[in-house]
Structure of histidine kinase:
Amino acid sequence: MPTSPDTPLYNSRIFDSYLKLLRKRYPNVDTQALLAHAGMKQHEVADPGHWFSQRQVNLFHDKLVQITGEPGIAREAGRYSASPDALGPLRSFFLGMVGPEYIFYLINRIAPRFTRSSRCSARKTGPREVELTVAFHEGVQENPRQCENRMGFFEAAFLLFDHDFPEIEHTECIFKGGEVCRYLIRWRPSASYRLLLAQRISTLLLIGGVLADLLYNHSVLGLPLLLGLLCYLGFTLLSRHIERKALLSSLTSMRSSSERLLSQVQENFDRALAINEIGQIISTRTELSDILSSVNQVLHKRLGYGRGTIYLLDPQRNILVLRGCFGLSPEDEEKLRRIEFPLAVGHPRGVVVTCFHTQQPVLVSDIEEIRGQAVPENFALASALGVRSFICAPIVCEGEALGVLAVDDATREEGLLQSDLNLIQGIAPVIGISVRNAMRLANERRLSEQLRKASEHLERRVAERTAELSQAYAELEFLYDSVSHDLRTPLRVIYGYGELLLEGYGQALDAPAREYLASIISGGERMEQTLDRMLDFSEVKSAQLSLETVDLSLMARRILAELRITAPDREVALEIQDGVLVTGDQRLLSGVMENLLGNAWKYSALKGCTRIAFGQKDGICYVSDNGEGFEMADAGKLFIPFQKLHDGSRFQGHGLGLSMVLRMLERMGGKVWGEGRPGEGATFYFTLPPAGTP
């Protein structure tokens, strides 16, 4: 992917060497102004994890040459990285190697730690000669001073091992029309190597002299042998002295590097342990307050941040409120709790609210930088608390912002760094997961409690309604019994005296009077039949069941044979399926079949040919006819007592038949429903336990 002038390409450790050189040899240079001109900040240069762009590097070099008046300062800074005062990044990488030549064999691994702008490769071209090639990535346009700085780094690699400056020949340069930058590096043997070589030569000469002395006259070679021995001892002592001095210098540097490395290892260990402990908190805590308190303790204990706060969204008030903190006195905590961060449009947005809305972390290296952006009251409180630099990281889960985590440490003179921001940015989503889980669990508990209360209320209402229904059923049964028994005698008196009046005095009455008496007698008889049906309807609920296997096919044939006797001249087509066996009460099943087949017979009487079918399919029994049928919109009224869907003048009935069918089937563990179309007939389906069911 092509890079742009604003792509981060160069590690801050390169420019840390520049600043150390300026403080050592150019103390009058205003480094703050230099960094500000290049768009760099002191804490960014001090942070090993920060990278700068080509635009910033160009501005930095141009300003640096201008204020120092030294065109070659870039190469000087490269060399200075090897000095003990700088203790630069090269020393920590290179001191563990045997010699400078091995550095170039690993250049392809070392270079990416300092630059992302190019690829470096090396090949050996002689006993003490190496060719280095730097190929730039697409879109990268360095400036010549970076090329000088790179050669300074090459020379620093030899200074680390007490070598003389190597001879560097820049055979191909991208700034002079080349495709790459190519460097041919030659070096002479080091002083220690030359002493070692002289020691070996003197040793050979001494051995040769001793052998010659043994073969010839001892007095002749005595003086040369003494001189050879003195040379050997001198070279040996000088070589050992130089070796001890180099070893002591190396050990001193390695000790400093080791201490820094151990400190970094301890810091990384604490960070890993903090993340692990936060993970354990998530898996073992369920209450939001416990989670936030434990997380704060881990951040304070493991990461060493002096103070920290956790602000979470309050859904009811649309603001951020303080939900947890560490490192604050009770008085300071109370002050912070009184601060609210409104999120609605129109309210001033400080750093915390901006971090929440943008879901982007913020590192403020100097609180004075945000004076104009911050809410004045909040800025005054932060200043009073001694906040100098701080980090805000959004607490996000599943893309939704839940709050903001803020930390600061007044004890750090250099302030918080990019590495701190990276750490907090990694911890904040973990906190977000725990907060979301705690909120969901709290919602589930609240919902469970609401459901429990609703269930208890519903159970009470059901019990009350059941009691009311039981009482209503009892009263209804009592009413049925009362009506059926108490009205029977007066009805019989009415139509009985009507019959006597018609028989004894019928001749004395005119035709209309006789017709009136006949209507009274007929109505009384129909009323008595209705009372009988009501009594049957009431008795269905309390009837004692005697479950057995019943052959509904035989029962259907018997009922239809009896119906045909009532209308012998009607044309009838019957389809009765054989072997329909169910488990039920014989008496109740007889009532079901009589009502269903009787309705089919009654409502198909006006057809030219009555067609009635009975059978069973997939365990469902059915009775169908080609009679009057009904609208499906009225199907809900079929089984309501005294509800009629057809004109009573055409089809007589009391309106209790299907309601009795429903009650009888429910008593036996079955159900019934109907389907029909006006003028095309109807089909009634019902289910019962199959034959053999206990």
